[in-house]
Amino acid sequence: MRILITGASGTGTTTLGRALAARMDCAFFDADDYYWMPTDPPFQDKRDYASRLQGLLRDLGQSPAVIAGSIMNWGTELEESLSLVVFLTVPAEVRVARLKERELRRFGRVAPAFLAWAAQYDEGRLDGRSLQRHERWLAQRRCFRVAYRRGYFDSGSARQSRRPGLVARLASRGVVGRIEGLRKSGQ
Questions:
Q1: 23 HSE (CA, 13 A, CB side)
Q2: N or C, which terminus of the chain has less Cβ within 10 Å?
Q3: pLDDT given at position 148
Q4: Which residues, in sequence order, are CB contacts of 181 under 8 Å at separation 6+?
Q5: Could you tell me if 65 and 30 are in contact, meaning their C-beta atoms sit under 8 angstroms apart?
Q6: Where is 175: in which H helix or E strand?
Q7: What is the DSSP annotation of 141-163?
Q8: Which residues lie closer than 8 Å to 13 by C-beta, 6 or more apart?
């Protein structure tokens, strides 16, 4: 069983991925750890296609896992091995605010080019991920897919305490039950 949590930067894919992996008691992998070379400052140099794909496939092995991030066009072997894809969307202004806060907290600065790239995701004016490219990629997947478009999971604000987390919402809609079934059947 392999679950992918994907969406634009700042939608909460990593937050949800970690929570779901903990709930499912399985391994968690962040696609950024395979896409980017370790640099200081981080996120400067991309790994080549073959290295990122083979690294993630090697680490995944045969164990159940949750992957967070974008693996669009990483390769059929990985993309067709998914049992479930959860696609998150969040309004651009919320995503950009989250990213600013995260970058300041992690690195003490915010890269304006990164924020500009992240902000244009819905329109897709620049290379890389975009809403249209993600939707086209999702339509090609044969596995079970869930798009979470209504509302959003707020991983760090006071609102979270007044609303159930997204893992709980997915459970209430039967998605976590479906995941449990996939896991038991060995898919």
A1: 19
A2: C
A3: 76
A4: none
A5: no
A6: helix 175-185
A7: --SEEEEE-SS---SSSGGGGGS
A8: 5, 6, 7, 68, 69, 88
Domain positions in the chain? 2-91+128-185
pLDDT at 147: 81
Residue of 139, 120, 140 whose CA lies nearest to 130: 120
Report the chain (187 residues): mean pLDDT per 10 consecutive residues: 94 92 93 93 89 96 94 94 92 93 91 92 87 93 80 38 49 58 54
Let me know the angle formed at the C-alpha of 62 by 183 and 174, rounded to the nearest 5 degrees: 20
User: Taken in order 12, 152, 4, 72, is the CA torsion positive or negative?
Assistant: negative
The model carries a pTM of 0.82
Tokens 């092995």 -> residue? 61
Q: For residue 186, is it left (φ>0), alpha (ψ between -120 and 50) or beta? A: left
Fold of 2-91+128-185: Rossmann fold (3.40.50)
